[in-house]
């Protein structure tokens, strides 16, 4: 079998909704890499968040929905929002009393409004993915431990990969698309494409464009690519890859676009698909 290049979304695909990687997924990735296949994550997370996750050894990563590309520790591409763009988003969110996360490779930075709104938003995110009755105070503690607090002019930065913000209603996302035509606007959230957060990143940057850059860098062919995803944001990954797998817990749009639907993330979804594709025995 030709060596394959495999791209895995993270949340809901490689890791479950409690931010844990199933042991079977780690085993599958280790075996596939031992068989000569290359495995990358392709995620909306920035590098700082990825480093906080318990992930198996990988060949590299695509982060920030395509804004950051890395192969074996070498930076292939890094595209950030400008200082002016970040300031525009920060001021817009503040005026509307919307909490936001500045997602940088150095860390994730949150403002006072997010400290107020974030615990409930993250709890709803987890509950929407199937977790039962998530403790809001535990989420507040997690934010204090894993995020940096900024206020005033500290919120204006030039190293921001993308900005996520709490959606009070879906209209906030629609308004962001109109307010920021120079950026890409997405949503993310619970199971079945429930929108809990909006996000804004550099225009022209998608998982698809990042995969193109990486394949060119590692001199690999598109015909040897396989992608795995669970949400609408992963459709751009599907556009670029030769074979596409949707997780059993995925939304209807990603399943409709898939060549194969595996089992849920916590029902050995990665392992079962790797075996089906003969990447491992």
Structure description:
This protein has 281 residues and is of the alpha/beta class. The chain folds into two domains: 5-78 and 205-276, HAD superfamily/HAD-like (Rossmann fold); 83-202, Hypothetical Protein, Haloacid Dehalogenase-like Hydrolase, Chain: A, domain 2 (2-Layer Sandwich), CATH 3.30.1240. The protein has ten helices and 14 strands. It has helices spanning 23-34, 47-51, 83-95, 112-128, 136-146, 170-179, 207-218, 235-240, 252-257, 269-276, and strands at 5-8, 38-42, 60-63, 68-71, 74-78, 100-104, 107-110, 148-149, 160-166, 183-190, 194-202, 225-229, 243-246, 260-261. It has an eight-stranded mixed sheet with strand order 5-4-3-2-1-12-13-14. It has a six-stranded mixed sheet with strand order 8-7-6-9-11-10, sandwiched between helices. β1 (5-8), α1 and β2 form a beta-alpha-beta unit. α1 packs parallel to α10 (269-276) and α4 (112-128) packs across α5 (136-146). The longest helix has 17 residues, at 112-128. 45% of the residues are buried.
Give the helix tally.
Answer: 10
Going by helix content, strand content and strand pairing, the class is: alpha/beta
Assign the CATH architecture of the largest domain. Answer: 3-Layer(aba) Sandwich
Strand order of the largest sheet: 5-4-3-2-1-12-13-14
């Amino acid at each position: 079998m030709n060596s394959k290049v495999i791209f895995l979304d993270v949340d809901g695909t490689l890791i479950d909704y409690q931010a844990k990687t199933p042991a079977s997924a780690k085993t599958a990735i280790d075996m596939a890499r031992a068989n000569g296949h290359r495995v990358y994550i392709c995620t909306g997370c920035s590098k700082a968040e990825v480093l906080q996750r318990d992930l198996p050894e990988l060949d590299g990563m695509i982060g920030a929905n395509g804004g950051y590309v890395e192969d074996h520790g070498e930076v292939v591409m890094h595209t950030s929002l400008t200082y002016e763009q970040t300031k525009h988003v920060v001021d817009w969110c503040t005026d509307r009393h919307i909490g936001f996360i500045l997602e940088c490779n150095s860390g994730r930075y949150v403002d006072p409004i997010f400290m107020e709104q974030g615990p409930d938003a993250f709890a709803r995110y987890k509950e929407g993915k199937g977790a039962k009755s998530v403790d809001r105070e535990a989420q507040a503690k997690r934010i204090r431990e894993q995020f940096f607090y900024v206020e005033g002019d500290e919120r204006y930065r030039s190293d921001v990969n993308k900005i996520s913000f709490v959606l009070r209603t879906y209209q906030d996302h629609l308004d962001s698309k109109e307010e920021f035509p120079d950026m890409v606007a997405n949503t993310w959230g619970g199971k079945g494409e429930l929108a809990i957060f909006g996000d804004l990143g550099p225009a022209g940057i998608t998982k698809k464009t990042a995969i193109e850059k990486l394949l060119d860098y590692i001199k690999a062919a598109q015909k040897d690519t396989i992608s795995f995803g669970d949400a609408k944001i992963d459709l751009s990954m599907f556009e670029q890859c030769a074979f596409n797998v949707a997780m059993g817990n995925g939304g209807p749009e990603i399943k409709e676009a898939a060549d194969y639907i595996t089992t849920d993330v916590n029902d050995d979804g990665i392992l079962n698909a790797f075996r089906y594709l003969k990447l491992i025995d």
